[in-house]
Every structure is written in structure tokens, then in C-alpha cells.
User: Fold this.
Amino acid sequence: MKILALAILAALLLSTAPLAQDKSASADEIQIKQLERAWNQAESKQEVQEVSSLLADSLVYTDYDGSFMNKSEYLKWVAAPQQKADHIYDEGQAVKVYGDAAVVTGIYRETGSNKGKPYVIRSRFTDTWIKRGGVWLCVASHSTLIPSK
Assistant:
């Protein structure tokens, strides 16, 4: 009986160890998803300061059209008056946390106007986040256009 009780106790202790790790990863995953949503909202409102606060100074950004931008170029693009996203919809995302690094993959749909012409795009993205001083910052972002059928 004692051996069975010890075996059950050991199994319970071992089975809860991953749960403790999942809780901290889960909190980071939730935070990063919130940061992704805040980024979408700030970009659609062309709130450059808010977008800037989410990005590392070393940001590398590759847009779905193949254009490559650093942080200052990307922020100029966000603020450009000739293009304006009306809505950026998150169609789902997955976050994988690796200590102080995380990779987010997902799909977004964007509607807006560029040079007076309306557009609708759907794109798959990968964002890489790094935690520095307890703060998550995006260091790399890449999107690929999903052609309409």
C-alpha cells in the first residue's frame, strides 16, 4: 500500500511540473497575442508612436510585395498619407515561446485604400519577438500574400 501511495504521489508531482512551466509560457503567449492585436489596431489608426513602442530598433520587416524595410522606413510607411488601412483582422495566430524569444505565425486580412484605390488583402505572417528587460519587442516580421481564388 505504501509503495502504491508513493507511486501515485510521485506521478502527481511529476505531472504537475509541466503545468507550472505552461503557466509562465501561457502568460507570455497571451501577452504576445495582445501585443500583436495592439500592433494591428495602432497600424490601422496610423499611430506611429504606439507601433514604434512594439518594435526593436533593429527591426527587419519584409512586406508581402517583397519590399524590405528597417524600423524607420516601416514607421514612415505606417504614417504615409497615401495608404491607409481601415481594418486589420486577425484570422488566427499561434505563438511558440522559446525562453526570451517567441515566434508568432498567423493570417490577417486587411482592408483600406492606397493612393485613393480600395484594397483587400489576405496574408500569412511570421513575427519574431525577443524579451529584453522584461519587455517583448518585435525584431523581425515577414508576410506573404495569399492570392484570392
Remarks:
- The longest helix spans residues 2-44.
- The chain is about 40% helix and 45% strand.
